[in-house]
Amino acid sequence: xxxxxxxxxxxxxxxxxxxxxxxTPAGGEFSYIDGKFSYKVKLWxxxxxxxxxxxxxxxxxxxxxxxxxxxxxxxxxxxxxxxxAKKKKExxxxxxxxxxxxxxxxxxxxxxxxxxPAAENAESVTAEAQTSVKEEDEPxxxxxxxxxxxxxxxxxxxxxxxxxxxxxxxxxxxxxxFIVGIWESAxxxxxxxxxxxxxxxxxxxxxxxxxxAYDCALKYGRYSVLIYNGIAFFSQLFTVRLKTIDVRPQxxxxxxxxxxxxxxxxxxxxxxxxxxxxxxxYLFRTFIPEKLRKRKLKKSAARQK
Length: 305
Hints:
The chain is of the alpha+beta class.
């Protein structure tokens, strides 16, 4: 009983950690003001990393570099007795190798010289035998191939070929229906995932400038259309909450201003919810009705027979 209680507590703790990870929002902050880009990646309140070199990642990196920079311990010098013993072993090894070199050894090549012609004769005999066997087998193989081709042509009738073509068409149709069913089931869960990305406190302050007034007006018109239409498109896909948007022209100035800032957040729980939603919609909308339809077709075909 005690072991079961401990296992139950461990399971509850693991489930609690998983729920915390799924619930806690992950994201960050970004800003581009006066030509300087800065960012901050956060997991709820915890700072993971930022552009100024802070956060958990930079701390872990510094600690790892400090471990690498630690000096190695100096090796202790070996005593004189060990050095002498080592030198004696090396001398004995050298004398033993020298004695082995002095022993006369007969050449094996001289003993094997008379056996060469016999091996050559054997090789020539085997080559002739192989060529004769190949020449005898070639006509038999050709006749077998012709017979097999004729039998294959006789085996398939016109009706059977039509059946195979119909089966291929059905398989292609089934694949297309399968892809369409998945797409119809995944549309709303995908939109749920996209809406899970929340862009908050979006701040845009753009000054479009040019020395020529005509060119400045043209630039202002183009950039304002791009910015406002882009925000409208992104607000349909993602959750966008605006703080201030200011786009204005400035005539007779060569340099403009492009300041922007915002906060981005996302919860992993939205992916889990969207996945469960997709599975349920696919099962009750596409998979089960398709199975029932195929079963009815089979029953009706069996009755007609």
